[in-house]
Predict the 3D structure of the following.
Amino acid sequence: MRGCERSRPFCLLCGIAIALAVCTLQGCKPRDSIRIGFVAGTSGRVADLGISGRDAAQLAIEQCNRDGGIGGHPVQLIVKDDQQNPDSARQVVKELIDEGAVAMIGPMTSDMAVAVTPLLNEARLVTVSPTATTQSLSGKDDYFFRVTSTTLAYARKSARYQIDRAGARRIAAVYDRGNRSFCENWLANFKKVFTDSGGEIVVTANFKSDEPPTFLEIAGKLLASQPDCVIIIANSMDSALLCHQIRKIDTETPIMLADWVATERLLELGGKAVEGITVVQTFDRNSQAPRYQTFRKTYIERYQREPGFPGVHTYDAVQVVLATLHAQKSGESFKETLLSIRTFEGLQSSFRLDEFGDTNRGYETIGIVRNNRFAVLE
């Protein structure tokens, strides 16, 4: 004993070596983390969605880990940038599959969701998208789930507002081909309601974000038709740029934007050019729900900006994944568990997924930009 005391460092090293050897033989190791993927465009023209979503997801995961994780296992969020490019999106999903992700959050845009869903189906990896609303993924028994309504709800709300409240009968529309699954689906739903009610789409233009167009030229084409309103279906950056060019030519013609654009970056980039524009919104900005107010306060304190609809919907999507992991039983697949739960508590209200992973949140409102802020009209 005294010899060991005189060479305590040596004894300590021996003890560690023995312990490591025993652990190796018996399979002793720290508890593995549970990996959840997050895929979104966190760079480029759609980064406002991806960054807000990523930050909300990180908050949700941190809170989960402070509460002990899942069954004592920490949760790790693996963030991947899809660059709003189908090939990049497929590549990062393959990486997540190889890295052992048990579920995924995202993508944030419809085109990327359409691009990666076949891979997810093949790998049987469930994704819960916060904001991909295309109907091309509706009503399918696949591994794509979402926590927001489809384009049908938001486009219909916009069309009814134009007919019933704004009195518009002639619409000029422009959309981004870079998110075609969303934009064309949105415009088709709007057109159906609008034309059935006596309206007319007098001109339609399009562009692609990675092929910079002459927005002044597009603005001139739209306004030459003398529309009652111009509708822009695009991301916040391109929508703001288009608004600037439209206002250079015409300061009076009303402008309405699709729900994709309703982030704070529109206000930052649009300035005076977006004052008075109307936009359909996908969540209740004025909600007094305690869970939402707590989340919003925490988010703003952490990131010094509003979470907006991308942050709110992403937080809900992460909670769907975490609740499913908490409930999952041995031998039961993630998808089976998720579909057995169906109803989840969101930040603003509960919501229920159908057998195909779709939901209807019923939050459609028409907003207006006043004094560089979003306000609710109806």
The two ends are 82 Å apart (CA to CA). The chain has a mean pLDDT of 92. The chain has two domains: 34-149+287-352, 152-281. The first helix runs from residue 2 to 6.
